[in-house]
Specification:
Elements (H helix, E strand, L loop, with lengths): L18 H18 L14 E5 L8 H8 L3 E6 L4 H6 L5 E7 L5 H15 L6 E5 L6 H12 L3 E5 L15 E3 L2 H7 L2 E4 L15 H8 L3 H4 L7 E3 L12 H4 L6 H19 L7 H7 L3
Parallel strand pairs: 1-2, 2-3, 4-5, 4-7, 5-6, 7-8
């Protein structure tokens, strides 16, 4: 009998996770959707746990590990501008560490909720054609999505200006489209990425207006698709830049589902790291209102 997969101590990224570990989180998140809709979102497995959110703007200092241990913290959720910060911290403290975004590296929980939303919509991930559109260069969401999608059997592509593509992106086994029209013709799902203007210096794009003219996801462009494309966006959106409001609020958009699934996925991650198991998720659901 094969042992059930576990997450290990930390969740720092999807690159080194197995497909079974990713599916474990998605399957565990399903019963938590009902819990996430309650006014009081209680999960018995987390009762008595101390969870700290660390959202840094300046760099961390190594002394923080000693402070954590003294405080008897069970879990740390960290967002940091330096790539590798979550793994650095996880290697130095006994507490569970969850990466909420590290530099341009990964944002695993966002990718997991994207995967769950795609699976809910299409009933599968394997065999789907998913294209990440826009600012791939600065997007940690794109990297986590790329790893997660390929591990679960999707075909993955990227589309955007060459100035916003990481060097060597094609070596990761993804298709690269230089025109949004080509991406729309190919894809089942478009995950439209935000232009991260705060991370850009001059020269990446001529102007916001020009970007929208060339790469904006508009109803007119979607009408030329041979199939009904599912539209996603990790948010926050630059409406009228990377995506038209008529698309974001239109019938093919599952952006609101992404928001809803975000709560369930993060509850599942906390539950599993706290020692819960997938087969006990239903019990957690039943006991959630205690």
């Amino acid at each position: 009998m094969t042992a059930s997969p576990t997450l290990g101590k930390d969740l720092t990224g999807l690159e080194h996770m197995t497909p079974e570990q990713i599916r474990l989180i998605l399957d565990t998140a399903e019963p938590f959707k009902e819990v996430s809709e309650r006014p009081i979102k209680k999960v018995p497995a987390l009762r008595g746990k101390t969870i700290v959110n660390l959202f840094f703007e300046a760099s961390t200092r190594t002394r923080i590990s000693f402070e954590f241990e003294a405080m008897r913290i069970d879990m740390v959720v960290i967002r940091h501008p330096s790539s590798g910060a979550a793994e650095f911290l996880g290697n130095r403290i006994d507490s569970n560490v969850i990466n909420a975004g590290d530099g341009k590296h990964e944002h695993p929980t966002q990718a997991l909720l994207d995967l769950l939303t795609i699976r809910d919509k299409h009933g599968k991930i394997e065999g789907l054609k998913v294209c990440l559109v826009g600012d791939v260069l600065h997007s940690r969401v794109a990297r986590s999505n790329l790893w997660g999608l390929t591990k679960l059997g999707a075909e993955v592509a990227v589309c955007g200006p060459w100035t916003l593509m990481p060097r060597g992106i094609e070596d990761l086994g993804v298709k690269v489209f230089g025109r949004i029209e080509e991406a729309i013709e190919w894809a089942d799902v478009l995950n439209v990425l935000r232009l991260q203007l705060e991370r850009m210096e001059k020269g990446f794009i001529p102007s916001l207006r020009e970007y929208y003219r060339v790469f904006g996801v508009t109803p007119e462009r979607l009408e030329r698709s041979p199939r009904a494309i599912t539209i996603m966006h990790p948010g926050p959106m630059n409406r009228g830049v990377e995506i038209d409001s008529r698309v974001a609020d239109g019938p093919h958009s599952i952006i609101l589902d992404q928001v809803t699934n975000g709560v369930a996925v993060r509850m599942a991650v906390l539950y599993l790291l706290a020692g819960g198991r997938a087969e006990l998720a239903d019990a957690a659901k039943r006991g959630g209102g205690e």
